[in-house]
Design goal:
CATH class of the largest domain: Alpha Beta
Bound molecules: flavin-adenine dinucleotide
Largest sheet: 7 strands, mixed
Number of strands: 17
Structural class: alpha/beta
Length: 362
């Protein structure tokens, strides 16, 4: 019987990628622990759309997990495109991905994180552990945390998001690239003047766009974006809300009322950033996954989904290859190719949109 090439692993980051990886590794008999900088997991975040590729990996990582998620998620049955002043451009009664309709739904990010965390023994999730550095030699890697603790393991995985500290130390290629747009998201109570209970809404304005969709349990997710040459973060929640209302002030009344009724503290303001593809993800006993290595624009809806692919494949390679170096070399090769494909698709989509605008202008 084959056995994994490592016995113990430290995963930096208790986001959805780190947690899914811990579940996958522990299933292989690896003693995987998660180290998260936050003091507690709180009900934050907005909606995430889970797609067939990500859900298939989650199902393979832990059978039954997707059913739990589906019970908390929501599947849109029709999609409508409107202008910012409220005129309907088109509407379709089929889900966006009819072929895989059972395998596509939206869920509140917090529900996703909570369900993943509940699949792990509580003693393997170490909150209030911000990783500040690590050192590796031929036999081990030692992670150091802001709270003074250290941990020595066979493998360190950086699943610490788009501003990854692990990547900074391992590769040192600077900050993520600002992709030229700002995004504001929140979850609010369902309002029937905005959309039907099973409807997803796409609204386009000038340099602005918005997506609204139900999340189930009487809630809807709104996500509004605007092109901006410079990224910024508002100094307070009140100013974030003021900014959203100002940027969308010409939009239809029901949208403005919804924004006005949104609790300022719940609005997430995010400069949309990307990580340019790397030629190598793993060095010695340290590797990366998720946004830490391939943070991508949310427009493709693949950030979380490809992160679950990373988790599944990394665990499989650590089990199926004879030594750590071969496992990580193959992980890099496969994942660089696969995530590069999504990057390429996104670049083509952006280029064709720009071309269309150019043709309309001529
Ligand atoms: C506007 C928007 C909409 C999106 N919508 C979708 C969607 O519909 N579908 C989809 O597939 N994806 C979507 N995404 C992308 C998705 O949210 C990410 O790809 C996904 O969360 C990546 O997971 P992760 O675990 O790699 O990183 P994260 O979720 O960022 O988790 C990283 C974790 O690491 C912790 N951490 C950071 N630094 C340290 C440190 N030094 N020490 C310890 N812990 C640390 C953080 O606190 C965090 O908990 C969206 C993203 C945005 C911005």
């Amino acid at each position: 019987m084959s056995k994994p090439v490592v016995e113990n692993v430290a995963i930096i980051g208790g986001g959805i990628g780190g947690l899914a990886t811990a579940i996958a590794l522990r299933k292989q008999g690896i003693d995987a622990h998660v180290y998260e900088k936050a003091r507690e997991f709180r009900p934050v975040g907005a909606g995430v759309s889970l797609k067939p590729n990500g859900l298939r990996c989650l199902d393979a990582i832990k059978p039954g997990l997707v059913d739990k998620l589906r019970r908390l998620g929501f599947q849109v049955q029709r999609t409508t495109l409107k202008t910012s002043t409220g005129e309907t451009v088109w509407t379709t009664k089929t889900p966006m991905m009819p072929k895989d309709q059972d395998l596509t739904f939206a869920i509140w990010w917090w529900h996703l994180q909570h369900i993943l965390a509940s699949e792990l023994p509580s003693e393997v999730i170490h909150l209030n552990h911000r990783c500040v550095s690590f050192e590796q030699n031929e036999n081990t890697v030692t992670a150091k945390f802001e709270n003074g603790k250290t941990v020595e393991v066979d493998l360190l995985i950086g699943a610490d998001g788009i501003n990854s500290r692990v990547r900074e130390i391992l590769i040192g290629d600077g900050q993520p690239t600002y992709a030229g747009s700002m995004c504001w998201r929140a979850i609010v109570d369902y309002r029937d003047e905005l959309l039907l209970p099973d409807e997803g809404l796409i609204i386009r304005g000038e340099q602005t766009a918005m997506i609204l969709y139900p999340l189930g349990q009487g809630k809807i997710n709104w996500s509004a974006g605007k092109l901006f040459p410079e990224s910024f973060v508002s100094p307070s929640a009140a100013e974030t809300k003021y900014r959203v209302l100002k940027e969308f002030c010409n939009w239809m009344k029901p949208i403005l009322e919804m924004m006005a009724a949104t609790d300022a503290d719940s609005i997430l303001e995010t400069p949309i950033c990307e990580r340019l593809p790397l030629k190598q993800w793993s060095y010695g006993r340290v590797t990366l996954l998720g946004d830490a290595v391939h943070g991508m624009s949310p427009g493709g809806g693949q950030g979380a989904n490809t992160t679950f692919e990373d988790a599944y494949e990394l665990a499989a390679y650590l089990y199926n290859f004879p030594d750590l170096q071969t496992a990580l070399t193959n992980y890099d090769k496969r994942r660089i190719q696969r995530t590069g494909l999504f990057h390429l698709k996104w670049c083509i989509r952006i280029a064709s949109q720009k071309l269309l605008l150019l043709r309309q202008a001529i």
